[in-house]
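debug: dumping io for the single-chain case to check the tokenizer round-trip. Nothing else runs in this session.
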Amino acid sequence: MSRRDLLCDTAIQILAVEGGRGLTHRAIDREAGVPIGTTKNYFPTREKILEACAARMTSLHRAAVDRLRETTPADISPADVAELYPALLRRAVADDPTQMLAMVELYLEAVRRPGVREALSGMVLANAEAGAALQQAAGLPSTVRDTGLLDAYFLGVAISLLALPVETLKTVGLDDPYALGIGVFSATVPNPAGPDSAGPDSVRPGPVEAPAQQRSARSR
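debug: decoded output
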């Protein structure tokens, strides 16, 4: 791994754990185990750090999608693609929420920082394009508009799962990550053919797990 990528990965981790206020040049140097001043040499301003985080997350996502496409069987079906989204949601919320939490922080920063907004725009477009290509490989007539909307729905659901208590999620019907994953797919993909594609009976129940941070806090 290059030093630049190390600094970006460290910054993403800090964003996820400490939020935007905790993201400083010194904090990155300290957590990355590099000499003080190293991060400032690569990214002179805080805005440049945030832009680099967005670029790094875009690169990681593209690499993950490329690996997925390389191992995708030629006869992949829309149902197979649909099954990816519950798995992605569970991983983003219950297994390792680092990337999702960092992305939320980038969205907040982008509201007030044009440079971050531009970098985030590139990430959103790249994600939507990669998603559309994957769905098209399964024979779906999906466009970037479809997958962009899917990503936006996915982000909103993930934020709710990360931020709200389990009892509240149950009350408002957001406690089943499998149903939610299939739901965001079915709501945005033209003629989706997920598992037994029509009807609520096709959705397997599975109560949502508390996010990693909530589980950790309860165990202390």
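debug: round-trip ok. Residues 192-211, 213-220 have pLDDT under 50 and may be disordered.
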